[in-house]
Amino acid sequence: MKAILHIPHSSLILPDEFYEYLLIDIKQLQRYNLDHTDLYTKELFENDLFDTVIAPYSRLYCDVERFSEDENEPMSKYGQGLLYTHMFDGTLFHRSSFQYKERVLDYYHNHHKVLNRLSSNVFKNNEKLLILDCHSFKDSVASYFFDGEFPDIDLGIEPDFYNGSIIELLTKKFNANGYSVEINNPYKGSLVPNEIYKSKNPNVCAVMIEINKRIYLNEDNTIDNIKFKKLRTVILDILNSIALM
Q1: Could you tell me the CATH number of the domain that includes residue 195?
Q2: Phi, psi for 165 (deg, rounded to 5)
Q3: In the chain, how many domains are there?
Q4: Can you spell out the DSSP letters for the chain?
Q5: What residues pair up with 211 in beta bridges, in sequence order?
């Protein structure tokens, strides 16, 4: 099986023009950016087996996982659509111009062009394809939007792009190493590149892996070396197993 790893939210970097429209102080922004960033997911998932697409900028600049039109994006009602404008408590923290929004859209569409191109290359050979959407989350952030207890690992699935063998593999590998796993809790679904989404190709599976930050980070967002190395080993084992399917 071929795979494309998508790592959309691992960067803390914001372009210079972002700051021109900032309405809060830098320290507030830094804290908010940290909470929203999937810290060290690049380091957890990077490998030599599969193509990997990494967004270079923070999701506060552009969330490449959102729908490009606010009317199609549920999170836009919280000010967290393609463009983030509001904080968790509803505070307006960023306001931008039409020209700025157009540049962000260009960035968004170029990112998806890469995903579409890589996906098309696989289809040329009629191969099976897994799109692995790689994330992490923090309990305190998830609790703003969801109730209940959250697992160590959340697997987000798409009904039209579901492969039971992949879900079984992921669940068993994580469980065997002491991690709790749930499906679509707290976050649901997985990114599917636009061209694939239209095709409904049965050879494609899409899975989002949401890793709870508590299983590899300390409270101050620094890496817990022992926990990180264990998790990294498990992920590499999973990727190697997928390559052999």
Answers
A1: 3.40.630.40
A2: -65, -40
A3: 1
A4: -EEEEEE-S------HHHHTTB-S-HHHHHHHHHHHS-TTHHHHH--SSSEEEE-SS-TTT--TTS-SSGGG-GGGGGTBSSSB-B-TTS-B-B---HHHHHHHHHHHHHHHHHHHHHHHHHHHTT--EEEEEEEEE-HHHHTTT--S---SEEEEE-GGG--HHHHHHHHHHHHHTT--EEESSSS------HHHHHHT-TTEEEEEEEEEGGGTB-TTS-B-HHHHHHHHHHHHHHHHHHHT-
A5: 136, 153
Q: Are strands 153-157 and 204-212 parallel, antiparallel or unpaired?
A: antiparallel
* pLDDT tens, position by position, 42-80: 999 999 999 999 999 999 999 999 999 999 898 899 999
pLDDT of residue 197: 83
pTM value > 0.85: yes
